[in-house]
Design goal:
0% strand, 60% helix, single chain, mainly alpha, 10 helices
């Protein structure tokens, strides 16, 4: 499906402006690429590498770049996240939504704040870190959504302790992470 979408982008790019082509990219390519990716994209494998190369090809096509041009600047220019960065963004927003009770009832309290576990003040409690679930590496626990999302959230709140991301709006938090990943 993605290769077919790249073919469509190749044909369309000569007839429509760049802004419209970017919108078409999100409609026919990005929607297919990101569908369910938070579930199956946690574990790195050869399929993900192939998807990344197809996404790079699509970025080169949108920008009329040569087939071997570096893509980092193209992603930044178009404000489009790479596949792995998009999975990270979805993980972070899942933790944010859970802590702000914006997920379905069955998924609420998936992530436990460290402050619920400890009665005393530590840097982890003041930065609003999450408890990491116990994992069994044999059964891919390390690549589960719960573990990966909590681990990434803890890295971000440690890296940016003054942001207090859990207290900001969802739009602010999402834009903050998008800008961070685009850099």
């Amino acid at each position: 499906k993605l290769s077919r979408s790249v073919g469509m982008l190749t044909k369309l790019r000569h007839y429509i402006p760049h802004k419209v082509l970017r919108s078409v990219y999100f409609a026919i390519f990005s929607s297919v690429l990101n569908y369910g990716s938070i579930v199956w994209g946690q574990h790195p494998n050869s399929n993900i590498k192939r998807l990344e190369s197809i996404q790079n090809k699509a970025m080169r096509i949108i920008n009329f770049a040569p087939f071997n041009a570096p893509t980092n600047a193209l992603y930044r220019e178009n404000k489009i996240l790479k596949f792995k960065d998009n999975i990270k963004l979805q993980n972070l927003l899942l933790v944010y939504d859970d802590t702000n009770k914006r997920v379905p009832f069955a998924l609420q309290n998936t992530f436990k704040p460290l402050k619920d576990k400890q009665n005393y003040q530590t840097r982890g409690v003041t930065n609003f870190k999450m408890c990491l679930p116990k994992i069994n590496k044999v059964t891919y626990g390390e690549f589960s959504i719960g573990y990966q999302a909590a681990k990434l959230w803890n890295e971000m709140v440690t890296k940016f302790p003054n942001e207090k991301l859990n207290e900001k709006s969802r739009v602010y938090t999402k834009d903050f992470f998008i800008n961070l990943f685009l850099e």
